[in-house]
Amino acid sequence: MRSPEQFTPLTLSGLAEGQGVLASCNPCNRHIVVSGSALAERLGGDWPVPKVSERLVCSKCNGRDIATRPDWKTYSMRQVVGATIA
Ligand SMILES: [Zn+2]
Question: Is the pTM of this model over 0.90?
Fold first, then answer.
């Protein structure tokens, strides 16, 4: 049995400089990259990346069925904010 401590998710402060959070909206299949620094400012650096989804609303379909994970592709992203931080 593994203890929960071994599954500590990456937090917003654990993101690399300029790294975003990729949010995938399940109902409309939209992918959004949200600025990690903007999220950290809003939610705090200790906020786990997977839990960011609880605070996002899709700006296209207003859905809240969103999955979030660290964005490893657009490492040198611009400030892209396509979702509302609730
Ligand atoms: Zn959506």
Answer: no
Residues around the ion ligand 1 (C-beta < 5 A) = 25, 28, 30, 58, 60-61, 63
Q: Which residue type does 85 have?
A: I
Domain range spanning residue 37? 4-85
- What domain count does the chain have? 1
> Ligand 1 centre from 32 Cα, in Å?
10
Ligand 1 centre and the CA of 27: distance in Å? Answer: 6
Ranking 2-11, 30-39, 52-61, 71-80 by mean pLDDT, the lowest is 71-80
Instruction: Give dist(CA 57, CA 45) in Å, integer.
Output: 20
In this predicted structure, the answer to whether residue 80 has a pLDDT above a threshold of 50 is no
Instruction: Count Cβ atoms below 10 Å from residue 82 Cβ, excluding itself.
Output: 15
